Amino acid sequence: MNRTSDFREKEVINIKDGRRLGFVGDVEINLQSGRIEAIVIPGGGRLLGLIGRENECVIPWEKIKKIGEDIILVEMDDRFIRKHFE
After folding, report:
1. N or C: which end of the chain has fewer CB within 10 A?
2. Which Pfam families match (predicted)?
């Protein structure tokens, strides 16, 4: 069993192309069902990370394929990757 705080230490990797997407910044929880709905990867900072932040990326729980000790493997399609990580 994992705690939500444990997710912040895990790197997210897309198994379709091996791309490193970043580290989990937060999780979305459905308060009525008590289930995790998605993990959130914060967007990169602008201006050398000093001012502002880009949009965060929300990865639905059903896209997570495996949660390991150090990484989370997800399976995301190319449209999502281009939109959020390029």
Report:
1. N
2. PRC
- Provide the sign of the torsion angle of the four alpha carbons 71, 74, 79, 84, taken in this order: negative
pLDDT digits (tens, 9 = 90+) for 39-56: 998 876 544 555 544 577
Distance between first and last Cα of the chain: 33
Does pTM surpass 0.85? no
- Say how many CA atoms lie within 13 Å of 25 toward its Cβ: 13
Residues sharing a CB contact under 8 Å with residue 21, sequence separation 6 or more, in sequence order = 11, 12, 13, 14, 41, 57, 59, 74, 76, 85
- Residue written as tokens 């069902």? 33
pLDDT at res. 84:
60
Report the C-alpha gap between 80 and 12 in whole angstroms.
14
